[in-house]
């Protein structure tokens, strides 16, 4: 079975940012994405009430160059103003043409 090496960009952010984040990653070259709810605890502690909203996990599989564009954009436009986490993973996918 043939697989294709690509990058998985994962973004954890406040759900209020979903539309803006999706528009940004698509504009930067992502062909698709998956969004789900996320919860946990980090350096700023744990959310303790529903009125604070929920976090989302946005994932997209992209080429290395698109991943770099997305992470650079997040670092300059989101990190200074929002509580947001982003990380990059190597993945091997089937049907690589669907992602680039």
In short:
With 100 residues, the chain is an alpha+beta fold. Helix content is 24%, strand content 33%.
Can you write the helix and strand succession as a string?
A: EHEEHE
Mean pLDDT: 90
Number of helical stretches of at least 4 residues = 2
Work out the helicity level. Answer: 10-25%
The largest β sheet comes out as: 4 strands, antiparallel
Strand order in space, largest sheet: 2-3-1-4
Low-confidence stretches: none
User: Which of globular, elongated, flat, extended, rod-shaped describes the shape?
Assistant: globular
Structural class: alpha+beta
Strand content of the residues, in percent? 25-35%
Give the end-to-end Cα distance, rounded to a whole number of Å. 19 Å
Radius of gyration: 14 Å
Please report the total strand number as a whole number. Answer: 4
Description:
With 100 residues, the chain is α+β, with helices and mostly antiparallel strands. It is built from 2 helices and 4 strands. The protein has a 4-stranded antiparallel β-sheet, covered by helices on one side. The longest helix is centred in the last third of the chain and has 14 residues, at 64-77. It starts with a strand and ends in a 7-residue tail after the last strand.
